[in-house]
Each structure stands twice: as structure tokens, then as C-alpha cells.
Amino acid sequence: MPDFHLDELTIFDNYEIEEMSDGDVTVKTKVVQSSLNYYGNAHGGYLFALCDQISGLVAISTGYDAVTLQSNINYLKAGHLNDVLTIVGHCIHNGKTTKVVDVIIKNQNEMSLAKATFTMFVTGPRQK
């Protein structure tokens, strides 16, 4: 069997929050070498983790802490090294016990790479 190993996956090395308002969050990041899978594309786990993190930030933007209760993601196109990704999260259900967040990831050419929906369980009001 040839030598095989898994590299460390880096997710939050470089990001910038562009918008964070009540129920809406936009973050930009760049795909780096440590975000790639062994095929040379943006790792699906990397894209999923970006969506999950943004869903948590969307919940925070509504004044509440929350954890992921359920999620679904569709991978639409491959991301590549040095792509500039825009991740947009929008709260489509702002309940007292759950929040539902839609997240989309687009590259610098406005091509959609992934679309996810997260159900977030509210753990309580956000402590400042």
C-alpha cells in the first residue's frame, strides 16, 4: 500500500466578517492549501464547517446562542486554491427555541459552491 496520510484541515485562518445584522451574516475567506482535499479541491468538510460557523453567527446576530440541531448541505461546484469565498447566512425562521438558517457559499465569480440549511437549537440569550 502506498504511503498515505491525512493533512490537517485549516478552516478559520483568514476570514473577514463583512456584515452582521439581525439575522444576516456575510463572511469572506480565501481557500488556502490546508483547506484542500487530496484531489486538490476545497474539502467538503471545510465548506461544511464554514456554513456551520456562519449559522452560529446568524443565531448570535439575533441575540441568542445556539447549537446545531440538524443540517443539510448540497455541494454544487468545486472550490479551488486561492478562490475568494463569500459565505452568506440568513435566518429564515427566528423562533424562541429554534432558528433555521440558509447559507450559501459563492466564489469570486459568483458561482455557487454549496447551499446549506441549518436548524439551530437556542441555548439562551447571548451574554455580552
Summarize the structure.
The protein is mainly beta. The protein has one helix at residues 44-61; strands at residues 15-21, 24-30, 64-75, 84-94, 98-106, 112-125.
Determine the number of helices (DSSP H or I, runs of at least 4 residues): 1
Overall body shape: elongated
How far do the termini sit from each other?
53 Å
CATH class: Alpha Beta
Count the E strands.
6
Helix content: 10-25%
Strand order of the largest sheet: 1-2-4-5-6-3
Q: How large a portion of the residues is in β-strands, by DSSP E? A: over 45%
Q: Examine the secondary-structure arrangement and name the CATH architecture.
A: Roll
Biggest β-sheet, characterized?
6 strands, antiparallel
Overall structural domain count: 1
